[in-house]
Amino acid sequence: MRVAEFLPEVKKTLEERGEPRYRLGQAYAALTVSLVRDWEEATSLPKGLREALNEAAPAAVLDLRNASMATDGTRKYLFYTHDGHAIETVMIPEKGRHTVCISTQVGCPMACKFCATGLMGIKRNLKAREIAEQVLVAARDIAPERVSNVVVMGMGEPMLNYGETVKALRVLNDGEGFNLAARHIAVSTSGLVDKIRRFADEPEQFHLAISLHTPFGDERAEIMPVASRHSIPELMDAARYYVDTTRRKLFFEYTLLAGVNDQPRHVEALVDLLDHPLYHLNLLRFNWTDTGFSATSKGDAKAFLRYARELGLSATLRPSRGQDIDAACGQLAAKDLRGRPAIPMLSRP
């Protein structure tokens, strides 16, 4: 991991002060291992240096404004960037696991018609440190328990912020830093085929998920504008390249929309489309947003899953989490969370 690329302001401050080179590594460890958000907490650094860093290169680049907890234990964090943009991050607790869902852009340019984030448009890309810090804050919050998984499925299309996203993931994966295994990190894309191929060629064993949502090209173009740029055959060529190159399972995300993509003909077409043993279909019922769509009923969603499995598809129906605080998949829109039940952020000794 090239620490200087991740912490350029810190590096500059250290150089201006004539500090020894190892101080940069100490600062990096303070952020990614000790999870400090104020340099005064970094006791491995001299007091004078801590003061200088707090003045010139603060430990926290995101302002944590609020954290809310859903009835199922899901937590949503509202951050503001230094230039006043709001982003959201979600932490999902499960048996023996804590999964953090992170954002890579302020808003999203993909304009998927069923997604609240897509209604926002795009403000800017997040920097690698802003992306990684979302995980570090969640990790500090749940300590001494650990973050077990990271999914890049929050606000934004990560493949349109490719360099900064991969840089952040390498920080999270770094054995001398946060030390999260690459196979516990997954990136979701709406289907940018050139970036899928590029991602397949990366040396780390990160997982990939492709947002599919229908096996029919005309329907996909209607609900996902990206489909007008890349046809389903082009997308599946890239998918095959990914599995042939990496030999890793490839996940296809599929949001069930009542009367839109939840009919038997969709299952039958998916069987023909997802014809590789490393392909896996992740089904999710639509989480309400003010987009005009409705969720497939629970019974119909289970029937869709059952039919898919009967026809030989590897498939799962994922539960929705955090709906009562708008933290479920497709609901992130960085609303002001005032009025939500606040939870205290855990302090570290």
Q: Low-confidence spans: pLDDT under 50, at least 5 residues?
A: 336-349
Tell me roughly what share of residues is in helical segments: 25-40%
The first-level CATH class name of the largest domain: Alpha Beta
Strand content: 15-25%
Task: Quickly give the structural class.
Answer: alpha/beta
Binding site for S-adenosyl-L-methionine: 156-157, 188, 211-213, 287
Cofactor: [4Fe-4S] cluster
InterPro entries: Aldolase_TIM (IPR013785), Methyltransferase_A (IPR040072), RNA_MTrfase_RlmN (IPR027492), rRNA_lsu_MTrfase_RlmN/Cfr (IPR004383), rSAM (IPR007197), rSAM_sf (IPR058240)
Main location: cytoplasm
Secondary structure blueprint with pairings:
Layout: H1 3-6, H2 8-17, H3 22-32, H4 47-56, E1 63-69, E2 75-80, E3 86-94, E4 97-101, E5 105-108, E6 121-125, H5 128-142, E7 149-152, H6 162-173, E8 185-189, H7 193-200, E9 207-211, H8 217-223, H9 232-246, E10 250-256, H10 264-273, E11 279-285, H11 298-310, E12 315-318
Parallel strand pairs: 4-7, 7-8, 8-9, 9-10, 10-11, 11-12
Antiparallel strand pairs: 1-2, 2-3, 3-4, 5-6
Helix pairs in contact: 2-4, 5-6, 7-9
Pfam families: Radical_SAM (PF04055)
Organism: Rubrobacter tropicus
Family: Belongs to the radical SAM superfamily. RlmN family.
